[in-house]
Amino acid sequence: MEKLTGLKKIKTAVFISGAGSNLRNIIKFSKRKKSPISIDLVVSNTRFAKGLKYADQFKIKKRIFDLKNYNEAEKNILLSLEKEKIKFICLAGYMKILSKNFIKKFGKKIINIHPSLLPKYKGLNTHVKAIKNKDKLAGCTVHYVTAKLDSGKIILQKKVKISAKDNPVSLKKKVLKQEHKLYPAAIMKILN
Q1: Do 99 and 118 share a domain, yes or no?
Q2: pLDDT tens track for 110-134
Q3: Of 80, 107, 134, which residue sits at a domain end?
Q4: How far apart are CA 114 and CA 120, in angstroms?
Q5: Which of 32, 99, 116, 142 could form a disulfide with 126 if both were Cys (CB 3.0 to 4.6 A apart)?
Q6: pLDDT (mean) for 138-146
Q7: Using 50, 70 and 90 to split pLDDT, how confident is the model at 192?
Q8: How many domains does one find in the chain?
Q9: pTM of the predicted model as reported, rounded to 2 decimal places
Q10: How far apart are CA 141 and CA 19, in angstroms?
């Protein structure tokens, strides 16, 4: 990964599927002087992703890809990334697994944020699992993306205490607050 020289920021795409609170957070982070990235493209697998409004709000190009024909869609996503000269991808609530082929072809850094202390609770329903198993701690992890679900090298983690009165909704809010701190910190760690 090229180091930051002067004011040249690394062109970044953020992939989303949902509400986009991490997208909004990363965009705000990218606007800071010391941030090593600029958000140049928002990619979604659904036009119903509420987070797309942040692309409009911050005047960032957005592309929506129908993944019914997955191979075709991935080819088109790669072409879009190339066209925008994207060098870095942040997955932020992107609910699709990138293929080994896509990861290899992109050939640059792809990172993801996951709402658990990996390797614990890969995949979905992490907060439900943590509470059901009476865990004392939950948290979030930023990791490199590999073809294996939530299995890439861990960059940073943040722990959150689970209280007796927590439920999946309250725990999700607690963890999300930490995600918003952790994602920018992880980006700074690997790109500076």
Answers
A1: no
A2: 999 999 999 999 999 999 999 999 9
A3: 107
A4: 10
A5: 116
A6: 97
A7: confident
A8: 2
A9: 0.94
A10: 19
CA dist 34 and 6 (Å) reads 10
Q: Do both 63 and 127 map to the same domain?
A: no
Instruction: Among 66, 83, 107, give the residue marking a domain's end.
Output: 107
Please report whether residue 34 resides in a domain.
yes
Question: What pLDDT, on a 0 to 100 scale, did the predictor assign at position 146?
Answer: 93
Determine the structural domain holding residue 35 and report its residue range.
8-107
Does residue 163 have a pLDDT over 50? yes
73 plus 103 within the same structural domain? yes
Q: Identify the CA nearest to 115 among candidates 48, 166, 182, 54.
A: 182
Share of the chain above pLDDT 90, in %: 91
CA dihedral sign of residues 30, 58, 56, 2: negative
Looking at the DSSP assignment, which residues form a beta bridge with residue 4? none
Q: Which residues contact 72 (CB under 8 A, 6 or more apart)?
A: none
Question: Of these residues, 114, 127, 143, 180, which one is catalytic?
Answer: 114
Whether residues 14 and 101 fall in one domain: yes
* Catalytic residue status for 114: yes
Q: 137-144 and 109-114 as β-strands: parallel, antiparallel, unpaired?
A: antiparallel
Closest by CA to 54, choosing from 83, 14, 89, 86, is 14
* Average pLDDT for 77-86: 97
